[in-house]
Every structure is written in C-alpha cells, then in structure tokens.
Amino acid sequence: MDKKIEPSCPIPITDYPHILLAHGGGGKLMHQLLEKIILPSFDNPALNSRHDGAVLKMGQVRIAFTTDSYVVQPLFFPGGDIGSLAINGTVNDLAMCGAGPLYLSAGFILEEGFPMETLWRVVQSMKKAAQDAGVSLVTGDTKVVDRGKGDQIFINTAGIGLIKHDLNISPASVVPGDAIILSGDIGRHGMAIMSARENIGFESAIESDCAPLHEMVLKLLEEKIKIHCLRDLTRGGLAGGLVEIAETCNCRLEIDESRIKIREEVRSACELLGLDPFYVANEGRFIAFVPEADATRSIDILRQFDNGRESTVIGGVHESDAGLVVLKTIMGVGRIVDMMSGEQLPRIC
Amino acid sequence: MDKKIEPSCPIPITDYPHILLAHGGGGKLMHQLLEKIILPSFDNPALNSRHDGAVLKMGQVRIAFTTDSYVVQPLFFPGGDIGSLAINGTVNDLAMCGAGPLYLSAGFILEEGFPMETLWRVVQSMKKAAQDAGVSLVTGDTKVVDRGKGDQIFINTAGIGLIKHDLNISPASVVPGDAIILSGDIGRHGMAIMSARENIGFESAIESDCAPLHEMVLKLLEEKIKIHCLRDLTRGGLAGGLVEIAETCNCRLEIDESRIKIREEVRSACELLGLDPFYVANEGRFIAFVPEADATRSIDILRQFDNGRESTVIGGVHESDAGLVVLKTIMGVGRIVDMMSGEQLPRIC
What we know:
The structure is a homodimer of 349-residue chains.
Chain A: H1 28-41, H2 45-48, E1 54-58, E2 61-70, E3 76-77, E4 80-81, H3 82-95, E5 100-111, H4 116-133, E6 136-145, E7 153-163, E8 178-182, H5 188-198, H6 214-222, E9 229-232, H7 237-249, E10 252-256, H8 264-273, E11 286-291, H9 295-302, E12 312-318, E13 324-328, E14 334-337
Parallel strand pairs in A: 5-6, 10-13
Antiparallel strand pairs in A: 1-2, 2-7, 3-4, 5-7, 8-11, 8-12, 9-11, 10-12, 13-14
C-alpha cells in the first residue's frame, strides 16, 4: 500500500540508517528528524510554528493543544517522579502558549510484570500534581506490552487549555529590542536524574525543579505584559531553547553568562561529570521574550512567586542576518552557542 | 513524597501483584484496573462517563477530547499499519462522541535502532490517513528509548473534535426501547493481525476493516437521528462493547446471532484458532443505539456509505434489574454474553 505514496525517506540512509538515542535528545538530530520527516509530511501552520503546542481556533474560542510522552528512568527521583513530570510537563507546554491549562489525557504503556503497587504510586503522584495545577484528567488509555518490549511504564499526556488574550506568543514574534528573562536557576532536573540513575552521592542532594509554570505566565498576561515568546527549558536546556528560537526569528540573541544562576551543587556535579549546565534539562524553568519597556515590570511580577524569586533579565535580542545565540562569558568574551547533536543525558523526561 | 498520599493500592496484591497482558485487553482485568486505580484517582464527570472520549465545554463551544496509544505488532498488516491505525482509531473515538474530528497530536516512542526507512513509511501512512479523514496533525513529540526497552515504535495520538449538536451521546443515555444497529461484518481486524503475526496462510486473505467512521456518524446527526450512544468495536470486540454499555445503562441488551455478519474466511480462521469472533477487535465497525422509531431511517442513511452497506439492526434494549447482554443463538436459545478477562489477541491495536 505504502509503495505508491512517496519516493523515499529524505534522511540520507547512508548517514542515519537507524534511529539513535540522539534522535530523541532535543538537539540537531531531533531537528533533522522533524524537518525532514515530520514537518513536510503534516505541513500546516500550527505544526510549522514549531512551538511547544498548537494554537487553534475551535468555533469562537482559541485553544492550545499539546502532547508529550514521558520515558524517564528511574521512575522516581529527588523532587519528582514520572507521574508528576507527565502532568507538569504538559501543563507547562500549554502555559508556554499563554493558555490556561484545563484538561489532560493520559495514555499508559505498561510492561507486563510491572508491579501494581508502583503503578498505584505513579497514579497517586499524577493525581496530586493535577490537583496542584488545577487540571482535570478527563480521558485515557492503557496498553500492556510483553515483558522485554517496554520499560516498566511510559506515559503520554496530551493537554488542552483556553487562550484568553489575542497575543501571538511564538518564536516568530520575537523581535530586536526584546529582553530575555530567565525564571530562575538552571540544571537541577537533569542533575537530579543523573544522581538517582548513577546512584552518585553528590555532596548536597540535588532536587528536580519539576513544577507547574502556568500561574506565573497567566499573571504576566493579566498584568498586560506584551509577551512575544515563552519557552520552557526541557530537553536541550537553556542553550537548546535559545538556539531554536534564534533560528526561527532570525535574530541574534545575546546573553550574559554572569546573570545565569546555577546552584553550586549543580555546578560541581556538572564539572564532575563533564556536562555543560547550559544544555542540561529543566522542568520548572522558562524564558520569556518581552519588549524592553515591559522587562522590569515582568521581573517584579515573576518575583512574587516562590518559583520565580530568582527571575532576571539575562540578555536581549538584536538584528542579525541569521539566527544565532551569543554568550558573553564572565571573561568578557563572546562565544557562539550551538545546539548539541543529541541530549547529554538520554531519557531525562 | 508519595508516602503521605494514599494508604495502599486497592487492587489486592495477592490477586494481581503485577501487570499482566490481560490488563490491557479490554476485558475484566482492564476494567478492574480502571475502576480501582484510575477512575477513583481522577474522579470527574467526563472521565466517569466511561465513553470513548471526554465531552467538554471550552468557553462557548462543546468539544470532544480523546487519546489512544498504538502498540500493534506486526507494524504492517493486510489492510493497514500502525500509522493508519493511529489516525483512524483516534478519529473514530471522536466520532463515537458525535464530534467532527479536527486536530490530532502524535507522540512517537521509538526504539534505538529502528530503521529510518520504516519510520518514513509509517509517517507517510499517517499522512495519507489524516488526509483521507480530513484531520490535521498539529503538534507532536518524539522520544527514543534504548535498544531492548521498547518495541520498534509506539504511537500515541490524541484528538479534539467539535460537537455541533446538543445530544448527550453516552452509555448512560441508552434506554429501553432503543434499537441496536451494527455497521457491518465483524472480526476482520483481529484476524488480519493474526494472519500477519503467525504467518498463517488462510485460504482467502483477510484484510483489516481499519477505516474512519466519522462521516457516517455526522450524516446521522445531520439527518437529526436522535443517537443515544455510539461505540466502536475495538479491543473486546462486539461482545466487550455491548457488555460495557449494558453495565453502565443497567439494561438488558438482546441481540440476535443470525443478524450478525461474519465473513466466511473470518469464521473459518476463528474456528481454526479457537477464537470467538464476537470478541475479536474491529477498527472500522461501530454500534449505534437509536430510538426504535429512528432505526429504519438510520439504516437507510448508513447504507449510503461503502463502509455501511451491511448496516443492520441486530437487537434492542429492554428493562432489567441489572445490566446484561443476551444473545439469541441461531438455535433459538438465549445465552448470556460475558466479558472476557483479557483480550484473546494481545497487542491488536
């Protein structure tokens, strides 16, 4: 049947005949997969916007719609577990569209032999996270695969939220003159997973920053901040998020290393493992692009929230012939920030 | 963290300490999982309706929202593949809510080493199925798991559709006096998978009935048929769908074996393998509960469609103290139809 559809796969088979872990890592290989296979096949404006979710018109209302699968290992880690991650991750993707999250779906893929008690713990964690975020899980599905054909539990959540403003919050809306705001310290989620996975006893325990972000975003909107773009810093970290936006808006994003907060225990754990914290995944951090004139007021609003107390302007957007990210290091040197080919830490979410 | 949440898992660990394949089979064990773990944890009216999707109010509009994960093996089978299944399955769940399907999400979980060319074929099949069903795939996610921790490819699709009528299409709306309509022959999807999986050369090739069903449903609605309930006959087959509805509406559903069409090649394949076609999964068949007075007109409408040409009334709904399904066999004997504990054929969708 499929023979008549399309000539052949556009990713050179000689380069990548098989899927690699890096194809799921939020870096260059994942982007190649998206650009060569997914986007051209399902070509439409919502998908092409390359945002965290799709913004859609349903009758008279505007909604956001998003999905993510969660395959994190281990299932439980300091500061969270696959259940809270599956709720907060999707809540945050809706928030990044400027939507108020309302309804979630859950699709479970369970491996035969998975302990019932562990499923119960995961579901209870989802329940608590959904209550905390004020969303309802309204529809679901459960599949079981044979032993050795899965890995304990995978969870997909999709979510829908209501958009009550008429801004176009999207990478394409970023313009020269915008300030770039970061909502707090970076690198904790990835390093919490690493410590749990490798059973590495770092000097101080590192907890994931996993948390819902929609209240901060909705408050910015309520206070009429003219948000141009939002991005939560999951796979690919701060660097991945910035590079992706720079490439879409075709601007030069300049950020100042000295303004980016990294906790001491995260910095030393990264040094120990040879990881760059700029690329480490977060699950409760986002960047906001707002007009320079709104920057101070935005910071004041974000700092009212426990999870936004360290919000700060980390840089700005400038005209450029091509999209790129420049980091002004603490030594005063400008360094171009590139995307990694994959994620430093596979199965981080 | 999870210690303070809930005392303990309500499924007796002594009975089922671990997830079995049957917990994903659409039968009794899956219902136990839903009733003991999922429904009480996320208690809300949309989820509790136990329908194929959730019916929700978003601002001024009514929408349907649904999700399904697809783990079928083999990936390609006569009449379809995991890609067309992932589109049509979710389109059909929206149709069963009486919604016009509009937007789909796709979450891919790929196993490291999965051939890029096969991914391309699956995506092209999804593209074609989405075009045929008139839906747009607007948002997505890709995860990669290590070799041996997945099984080639799992696909989750979630979907949203617009509801333009004010009927309450749901198992709870079924009442005595309703006619039960079946949209065609049964058992083909399951037996097509079996033939592909076991490489059994049945005398005649059996093709899956995989197809979108929304056009038939929307036409019934357009013609003002007062639909009480719809159900597509996937996992658990015709028997599973009927028993689930009977238990929710607390009525006796009587169906007539002689009116249920099973193709000769499906019947002999089932006999050969010792399977009951009433429990075999379909991917392009549904049952509709309509008032007796609307039955003939409904049949006339459905028969205008290629895929509805064999639509027929197979029975009716009667008062009862408890929900049950009675099959009048071709010998004239009444037999109570029960739900299986699992699916006869694991990983059928």
